[in-house]
Each structure stands twice: as C-alpha cells, then as structure tokens.
Amino acid sequence: MRVVAISILQLVFIPTKWLHTPKAHPKRDVFYRIDKGLDVNTKSTSTNSFPWIRAMLVIAATSSALGCANLATNSTKSGAKGITKGITNEAATAPLASTGHRGLIDDAPPLTADKAVQIALINNQNLAAVYAELGFAKAEVFAGARIRNPLLSFSQLDSNAGIDQIVWGISTSLTDLITLRSRKKLAATQALAIEQKVQAYAMATQALTYQHYYQYLASKQRLQVFQEISAISDLILETTQRYSDAGNVTALELAEAKIQSSEAKLALLNAQAAVLVARTEMSEVLGVRASQNWQIAKQLPIPNTANRYSTGDASGKIPAKDTLVQQALEQRLDLQAAQTKIAALTLKLKSHGLENKVGDIELGAERERESDGERLTGPNVEWAVPLFSQGQEDQLKINAELEIAQAQLRQLVLKLDNGIALALAGRENSSNKIIQYQNHLLPAQANAVARTQEEQFFMLIGVFEVLQSKKHQYESLLGLVDAVEEYWLATTALAKAVGVSPKVFIDQSNNGSQGLEDYLQPDPGTDSPKKSHKHQHHGMHNPQPRPAGPTHAKHNQAPDNHASHKNHTQSASAKP
Amino acid sequence: MTSRRNFLGFSGMSAVLSTVAATSAQAKSTVTPETNMSNKSNKELGYNPVRTPNGWTLPYTEKDGVKEFHLIAEEIEHEFAPGSTAKCWGYNGTTPGPTIEAVEGDRVRILVTNSLKEHTTVHWHGLILPSGMDGVGGLSQPQIAPGETFAYEFDLKQNGTHMYHPHADEMTQMAFGMMGMFIIHPKEPEPIDRDYCLLTHNWAMHPGTSRPDPSVMVDFDLWSFNSKVFPAIESIVARTGERVRIRIGNLSMWNHPIHLHGTSFNVTGSDGGRWPQSAWRSESTEIVGVGQTRDIEFVATPGDWAFHCHMSHHTMNAMGHDIPNPTGVNMRGLEGKIRDHLPGFIAMGENGMAEHQQHIDAGHHPGPANTLPMMTGSGPYGPIEMGGMFTLVKVRDDIAPNDFSDPGWYNPPAATIAKRISSNPNYGNPPRKPESG
User: Fold this and answer.
1) Architecture of the A2-386+396-525 domain
2) Given an 8 Å threshold on Cβ–Cβ distance, is A546 in contact with B382?
3) Is B411–A550 a contact, with Cβ atoms under 8 angstroms apart?
4) CA of B80, closest CA in chain A: separation in Å?
5) Are the beta carbons of B417 and A548 separated by less than 8 Å?
6) Helix, strand or coil for residue A297?
7) B352 touches chain A (CB under 8 A)
8) DSSP H/E element including B386
9) Is residue A432 very low, low, confident or very high in pLDDT (cuts 50, 70, 90)?
10) In this predicted structure, what is the pLDDT of residue A101?
11) What is the pTM of this model?
C-alpha cells in the first residue's frame, strides 16, 4: 500500500514537471514558452496587470505562426521568414516592455500599418479574451494528467460490548490509472487546439488591423476629396451670387447653385461621420480609445500596379490560385486548429469508450478494529460493472460534436477556396480600376480641366464651366479612393485567406507608390499657371493711357505694356 | 447639254485622264495666290483686272476663240490667319477658288475636274446661260463624279460681279469653302483705277477643331473676306484721288452690312452689272444679302480706314455665344480662391471685354489649339480688338500704279489726331438729359 501511495503522489506532480519540459516541436515550444513565463497560480492577475507581457507572448506566438505560415515557394518562404523575423524583432523592442502601448499611441508619429498591428496585438480585448482560453488549455492538460485523489475513510462505531469499532480505509480509482495515458494524450491535443486557435486569432487580428487601417485611411482621403468638392461648390455658389448681384443670372440659377453647395455640404458631413465611424472601429481593434491622440498616415498609398502581382518570389508573380489554396490548406492556423479539434474529439471518443467498457474500479485498503479487539486488515475493490450502461449518452454527444467539427472544417476549407479566388479576383479587378483611373480617366480629367480653362480664357465659355470641370475632376478622385481601398482590402483578404501576413503582398505593391495628394494638387503641366504674372485683381485695372501719335511705322507693333509677351498678335496689316 | 458620256466620247478617255492628272499636279505644285497668270497689259486685255485680296485670278487659254479655264475641286489645307488652319475644300488649291475674269461677249469653256471623294457640280451664280450649263446637280446635269472632268461652255451675255459655287451637296461643300468670284467686265472699259473683289463667308470652325462643321446653321465661329479673317486680310490699297471699286459677294448664311469709314461711297452695281449713274446710291453702309453681290465705288482719301461688316459679332473671331455675362460682376476676393483650385484662372469682363486682348497679347494663358482669339490685331495706338470681316482701306498720296503692297500705318498730321486733354474722370460738365417731371 505504501508503494501505491508514493506512486500516486508522483503522478500528481507529473503534470507540473511535464509543463516545465520543453518539447522539440516548435509549436509546443512556443506554447510552453508562454507558460514558462507565467506563474500558474497567479496567471490571471499577471496577464491582466501587464498586458504588454501578454502581447509579447502573443506576438511571439504569432511570429512563430507566421514563420510557419508563409508561401510555399522557396523564395517566398525566405521572404516571409524575413518579414516574420522583422515583426519578431519589432515586438521585442524596448518601447513595448518599457512604456507600453501609450508610447506608441499618444503623441507618437502617425501609425504605420505595422505599428498598428503591434498595438492591436497588445491591446485588442477580443484577442485578450481568446488568449485567456490558454487557461483552458492548461486546465485540460492538468485534468488529463491527473487521477482522482485517494479517498481516506474513518469510522468509529460505538459498541455496547465496551470497545468501539474503528475502521480506517483508503481507496483510489484504478480506472484513472488505466486511462491515464489516453487522457494525457487527449488533454495535450485539446490544449494544442486551443493554442492554434489563439494563434489563428492573432493572425486574424493582424489582418483585421490592416483592414481597418486601410478603411480608416480611405475614409480620411474621401473626406479630403469631399472637402475639395464642397469648397468648389461653395465657389460656384459664391460666383453665382456675384453674378446675381450684378443682375446677370436668374433666381433659378442662383437656387440651383445653392442646392449644389448644400448637397456638397451634406456629402461632406456624411464623409466626416464615416471617418469617425472608421476611427472608432479601428480604435476598437487597437484596443485604445478613439478620443486618444493617435493618428495614422495621411496618404492612402496608391499601389504600384506594375508590381501588383509581385510577391518577391523569383518569377515575380503570385502563385496560381490552386497553389495558394494548397499552401493555405497546409498552413492556415485556424484550419490546423479545426483539424486538431477533430483529432481531440476522436481521442475523446476513444478514451470514453475505454472508460465505459472498463467501468469505474476503485482499489483500496482497509484496517478494522473490531469491538472485541480483533484487528482486520486487507484490500478492497469496488467495480461499477458496466452492465446496464456503457456511457452511450456521452458517446452520442461526443459523436455529435465530432460531426459538427468535421462539418465546420469542410466549411472552412470551402470558404478558404472561395476566399482566395474572391480576393485574387478583387485584387485584379481593383488593380485594373486603378490603372483605368491613373492612365486614362484622371489624365483625361486633368486634360479636360486644362482645355476648359483655355476655352474660358478665350471667353468661349464662362467661369462656371471651368469650376464644374474641376468639380468633376475631384469627383473622379472618389472613385480612385474606392478602387485603392478595394485593392488593399482584397490584398489583406488574400493574405488572410492564404494564412500569411498582409505585409507579404503589401510591401511589394507599395514600391514606387503614389498618393492621392499627387492628384489633388493642380497639375502645373496642364493647368499651366503663369507664375510670373501676378493677377491679384484681374479685370479691375484700367489700361494705361497710350501715348498719342504713332510711334511705329510700317508693321511695327503698338506700344503695349505687355509688349514683351506678344505671341499671338499680328499687325493689322499682316500679310498671309 | 454636254453629257458626261458625250464629253468622254468627244475627248477620249485617255486625254481626259491625262488632263486631270496634269492639272491636279500643277495646282498642287505651282499655283500660289500671288500668281498673275496674264502677261497681257490692261489695254490688251480690254479691262482693268480685278484684284482679289489674299486670292488670285485663274489663267485661261484661248482655243479657237474660246477662253478655256480649268477648275479642280479638291481638299486643301487653308489658313484663316496664323494660328488657325483647317482642312477645307476649294478649287485649284485655295478657298475661295481663283477669280474667273472675262469680258462680256466672250465664249468661255470651263473644265471642272472633281478631285473630291464625292460628286460635285459648279453653278455659275447670276449668269445668263443655257439651262444645261447652270450646274444644278440632278436637275441641269448629272453630278461630276470623283475623278471626272466636266466641261461647261457658254457665251457671256452680261457683265457684272458674279460668283460660282457647287450645287451638289451644296450645304456641305460650301460650308467647306467651295466658292469663287466670276467677274465679267463690260466691253467698254470703265473709269475704275483699282478694282477689288471680296467674297464673304462664314465658318463653323469650332474652337480646337481643324475642319469646318457643315451642320451649323447660325452659330458660326469665323467670318471671312476671301476666306481670311482679320488680321490676315490684305488691306485695300489706293492712291489718293483714285477711283476705287470694291465688289462684294455673299455666299455666307447671313446678310452683311458692309461699312466703309471716312467716305461716302456709291453703290454702283451688282450681279446685274454696273448700274446707270441715276441708280447709284450714296451710302456708308450697304447690306449685301445672302446670295447677292454689290459694287461700291469711292474716291480714295488719305488715311487708314476701317472696312468691315457692321454685324459686331462678324468682326470677332471665335467667341462664346452663351457665356454667362461677366459685365458688372465683382470678382474681388473670389478670383484668388478660384485660382487655388485652378492656377492661372483669370476673371475677365467686369468692366467690358477690352481687357481680353491685353491678356491674350501678354500671353497670360494659352487658348484652345488652332483657335484665333476673339479680338486681336494691333495698330499704332494699341489693340484694334477686331477679328473676322474686318480689314483696312489704306490710302496714301504716293502709291504707285499697280502697287498693292502694304504701305504701313498712316501718319496723320498732328493736328488731326484725337488727343487726350484730361485724365480726370470728373472733367468738365457734360450735360445729361434732365430727369422728367
């Protein structure tokens, strides 16, 4: 019996010892590195009090996951590993540990997408909640590696013969011992599933951050365009009012200008609201308050569409859809988590089957002092004979869970396939839109504005046509912003679908990129201001009196304040 | 009537084709507006030849007592004035086509070769001739198909100022510039020292385009004398005291009140020839209706005199017809805001449009390609602010006979120039009409 008791104590402490023994598997390594950094008994308070520690751990976990989750081609693998390394290095930098996220948020330079990801991994509360599920993983491991505590019993029975009857007993579950190996395996698998789920969620948070980053940026850029549209609509109204004051336009024309201005203001208000919504949504992803003093870049980068297929692999092309799907199947962490969950449920089913077939067996020892002083000592066995029930109800529940998990896995694979196809198509479509805007529509709009201005200068059309032409140019920019946003969202979706960081695609697309500002600035080549002439008040000055009398003989040009600029004018006596 | 079939049968196909080829090549290679095809003196000619400013006179050959002319209808590159050229249609390389001159009683044969890609005809506007020679396609003759040459032959039974133009797809072909003057001198010489002819026309040369638009009916962009617009129209030059005749034909789609400054001219003739003196009218402006011709005569007095259509917008080049009226519009403080969006923007016209030419001349901003500014031209005292159907009659004391070169600006006696006596806007006390009541 002493031997048995020692063995039980040893078994009780095995889990802790096991937890402190790193395994060779890299994911296990990550997982247990996480646990090594925590006091098991005070885990909860530790993680809540020091979120950056959790962040570092999640980043580390994510980085490791990224390390696994890169495109399969050799060159891409190396590229992705480089990116992963970069993220890991960034995550390990001092500001995270020393000053926390406020150092990255408040009064900091505008956030890049990468910085935003770092902050989200630190502060995102959904991620924090998912991370807390690691506690379940540990609990599973504890539970799996444990047998029930031995049961000590004592009874003292009063005897009318003078000596009380005293009974000492100890018992423990033999079934626990028999199923310990399979339960440990099950617990480890369940823990792995949770770990993969956490990693997958961290990946998803990364993609979500990129998504909201671009949505917020796009909303800001739209606001900028709407500000220009509103400004020029106001100019149209103000100009119409001036024409009205001079008695040169009708009340109808003035009313129409007011409508135009008001509609532009309403659109501007909508755009302002959209920015607020986008900022709020992004702040929730970042886990910070929207009212905090944080900013993101001002410019929505316009991707270099010439590199839109480039991923840094040798061919410069994104692998074909089937290849991407295959890679996603191999490396998507949520997929792995779903597969592990199925494995765990399969194990659970098997483990329950064994337990139910064996039935609950209790082994023990008992020492009894009879009322007559006789002492009895011996083992005892209790066995719940699985005669009437073999745990079918549990089996059915686990089976159902297994079927659900398998269906969910199939759905995930289907979504993965469709998601990659849709993201590729969206990327291609938006890329073509950008090309259409950049190479055709916007140059044509700029050209139209310039030509309109030429016509206005020759008094062939009026100021209103020029202003409307410029307004149309601004309105076209809204389409460009939409297309660029679509491109980045599709790129982010593609990365998410394949199971890699958006950085893998985004860095390549950004090479040589332009920003919207390039289009908001008047094109000096087409609008062609003549900067050498100061026209603060054109149309208001009186021509200088000219000297009386001819000063030029044959074919000479007239004295003119702008004589040096003459280019069109011919002498009245010019010959063909 | 000489049908195309009969003509070909008479002349032979090969002869016609070789003539077409030779004539076409000649038109493109040697003909210039300055070409004076006749080496004959006025006495030998029996008349004082007309001068077509910016144009030329078609030479002829005499064959068996018939004066034979050869026109070729073709697409040409035409310049209205430096800065505006267009693909036009004309005759023998120009629009208007060369002026045809002959004498009353002459028998003329006019060969017409069609080098266009559609058929054409030539109508001899105002001439008394056989019906089959009248040139109305489908009515008086079959159309002249591309590549064909037709011969018109008839006696000149009248004298006066006449015109020629197509009568096949007339609207299009005339809109593209197919027209010319046909001057028939009387048998007896007239006491005219200098005889000019001008053909008025309008062009839908939309700003920025390079081919006239034949579908336009009223909103024309350019108004021309001999297919040129100011300031590219040659001046009418004369010596003081000379008797000058200006023959004006109108093949445009508007009537033109033609006004000559500085003199009172007589309206002396039309396509009916020179009127009896009793029928002359003294005018300073004479309306030349669509399809009409008018001759005016005057004795030249020294100076630079404006000569133009008095429809004000006919003396403008390309201009907006429905731009918002800028006059009286105060754009102070607003112009700069607009310029923030549209660099180079210039608000014009608060106090009138005179400043337009100043901006143009200063080169402040380019205009549309191939487009002439609304108002242009500079004289000795500043911008002339004209365009279209505007030119000058330049009379000097020392112009030699047959010298048509531009004498430059007139230098008037100092006492005869308007001069500034004050720059004070409140100067003097000009009477204004008292308010009634």
Assistant:
1) Up-down Bundle (1.20)
2) yes
3) yes
4) 9
5) yes
6) coil
7) no
8) strand B382-386
9) very high
10) 54
11) 0.77
